[in-house]
Amino acid sequence: MKYFIFRNSTIEPFFIENEVSYSGYGDISFIPEDADSYIWFYMLPFKLDVKVLVEEIASFFKNLLFVFNQMAHNKDFYVFTLNELYSTRLITGDYKVAKAIAEYNLNIIDLAEQNKNIKILDFSNFTTRYPSSHLIDWKFYFLSKMQLNPKLSIDFKSWFSGQTKAIQFKRKKCIIVDLDNTLWGGVLGEDGIYGIQIGEDYPGNAFLEFQKALIELTKTGVILAACSKNNEADVLEAWEKNPKILIKKEHLSAYRINWNNKAENIKELVGELNIGFDSVVFIDDNPTERELIKQFFPMIETPDFPTQPYMIPNFTKELIESYFRIYSLTEEDKSKTLQYRANIDRMNFQKGFTDFKEYLLSLEMEIHLQKVNSSTIPRVTQMTQKTNQFNLTTKRYTEADIKNFIEQGNTIYCISVKDKFGDNGITGVIIILLNRLTKSATIDSLLLSCRILGKGIEEAFVYSVLNKLKHEGYKTISASYLPTAKNEQVRNFYEKLGFEIASDDSSIIPGAKNYIMDLTKHNKYEIKPYYKIIEI
Amino acid sequence: MKEKIKYLIKRTFGLSDISDEISTSSCEKWDSLNHLNLIVEIEAEFNVSIEPEDIAEMRSLSDIEKVLNKLLNH
Q: A332-535 in CATH: which number?
């Protein structure tokens, strides 16, 4: 069973039948253990007696706490906020009910801040789309205690799945945006630096709003790149001289401004940013360019840009809701733009060296190696969910899974990597299953963010972990590679580290390989001098 | 109309094939909750609002037809 729902009214039409089970109405006596996650979906009862209603609302939170304290805290617990769908107050100036609702909502938010497995679902985000009269169909209320109009069930299901998806981090990573008639009105090459439409008056003000929205998105970790057919010098001059243009060079993690075809340019940008094509959204006002990109890279999202600038806010909303919604930010998300930009500085820097070793040495890399703990679990989980390219087995885990690994005595290390250009944050994870009796270990998962690839960090990471295992007396370590559409680059990774092929699972999964390494054969795995390993 | 209703019943109850004699007593899936789900579907499809008294009466395919005929021919 995917979800078990604690509820106080009839909500069956709003969930997918075979995914859920329900408590009795207001029943908190039974908490099934076989649910993957729990949901708390209480609705405000219709009552005119303010005193009774206020007490009842207070009791909801007590009940919720009672349930929460008994359930396994390694499972997600989705809690709906309480919202008044239909209010009849005898005394207009009486805000006791509103206060009780606000208090309830604050309480659950506090609880969620203290407990990472609680995820708040803001019910008002759904209900404010409809007028009060549409939210309730009294006929169904009286026939079967449905407090939400069953005619909204399809809308609700898609809203709910959108919300849970946002919580499970499936957002895109990058926007590649055109300039002329997209970031501003008009054509820079024809209208000139001050002739383009951007600023106070229509349509310039609509484009300005779009720029502001994109800047806000970069603050949540979305990386922004530009691809435009223009003279680069013209654009650089416009950035420098026209103060009304908000999105400047420093907001862009990379750009291609030239007369080459956009498919070529985008291919280069994606390579430079080191991301997958399927994490890109391409925004261009020109349908021909969108079609070109669609043809070349069907994995890139190419939403239709509005032909009238005043429709931009709807476009922006749609853009955010379809590709960039997120439940909460990790520190890594916030500084991602900076990190990608620092990476590009690193690449440019790289050209000045004749020797790659010299370059690596000059980076002054520090690898901070630590065991995963409760403060790093969210980021580590997120990485198992999102990492595609450097991922040996591509197993997706929830926070609960990660906690289980640790509770069962296994070891999970993560690394955060720092160099002279900046701190990349947690960017590598290895999950090791330990058998203390036979002194053998197994690498269940090994993954690195593509942000830190290309510097040999992966080898230093694995070797320092192997040294630790040796030190703890482990004799053998096994590992495997499971191929996916995206992890071709690590197909021979374990061979490079000196693992031997133990068996080949090709008959079951084409291309899969199992490895083994005898830890006793090596004295100590040598870590190159470019990396300073700091154990925390 | 009969085919349309049958289609709605099949879709709502998740059944691949049903007979014209289907009723609450002959069909396990036709419980009180699915009954209301079906009413929601019928109201939307035929653009009608069915009174609770009629909802209680609609216990077979032919009952549903009767109620709908009454509502649509008014």
A: 3.40.630.30
